């Protein structure tokens, strides 16, 4: 999803607020905020676990006929991300397809280590999920997750039948300068936790989620976003995101142009991502197509699920003929 998909303006404000958080927020965070809330499954399936390099575990959720065409759902990366962002697609596509959703490293029920996460970590999660499925798979990714899915397709092209990228990052035509110091601040044990608690309070989550909905914010997504952001070590993957370390610089040239799998882009209006360079790119790459899901703001799987699922299944159908 697109919560904080362009985090850099917000990041600067957070850095300026650090002294206030240190003075007023640390005590409240330590005493009154629960950082180990019960966390239900993000979708209607119990997790299984795959192993990543270094022995870290990756949470996977499977549903649908096991012999059917395999699909992998990759969520976005933000302050409160999880496989819950892909729930409408998980429920609908699993009626006919063999669907797997994952929690990316540092999110959901996957291992959350107190480390500096990077692009390779997130890409390794997608690759591990593909290897666990073990068959050519149609990958559907959201927002910044699109960059990791695209990179995984260049690493294991034998396991990727197609890509569907929903509101992908990287097509805005320019790159922002990431405030790398924010990651260092958020990783600090006291100030960082207090800042992260402010960033992931329920009102703040709802405020930024509302920018990705034309209508009301999905209440299940809102509540799960709060729960998943209040887990041990929950701030470490978002710290990398908010410092800009998870974005690919010049993604069109350095990443998307190298993708060989058939690719569909679904998009419309988006408060956090620009698609200014999408049409010129797809016009020059025959294996790429783009389709607008009208009346949405970055999360068409929630606000236009029928149109989104139809576009995906039609696209997959053209490849599986």
Describe the 3D structure:
There is one protein chain. With 321 residues, this protein is an alpha/beta fold. An eight-stranded mixed sheet has the order 1-2-4-3-5-6-7-8, sandwiched between helices.
The CATH topology name reads Rossmann fold
The shape, in one word, is globular
Q: How would a textbook summarize the main sheet?
A: 8 strands, mixed
* Distance, first to last CA: 31 Å
Strand residue content: 5-15%
Mean pLDDT: 92
Question: Could you state the order of secondary-structure elements as H and E?
Answer: HEEEHEHEHEHHHHHHEHEHH
Please count the beta strands (DSSP E, at least 2 residues each): 8
Q: How much helicity do the residues have?
A: 40-55%
CATH class call: Alpha Beta
Strand order of the largest sheet: 1-2-4-3-5-6-7-8
The CATH architecture would be: 3-Layer(aba) Sandwich
Low-confidence stretches: 1-7
Total of DSSP H or I helical runs spanning 4+ residues: 13
Output the radius of gyration.
18 Å
Number of domains: 1
CATH superfamily: Alpha/Beta hydrolase fold, catalytic domain
Q: What structural category do the secondary elements indicate?
A: alpha/beta
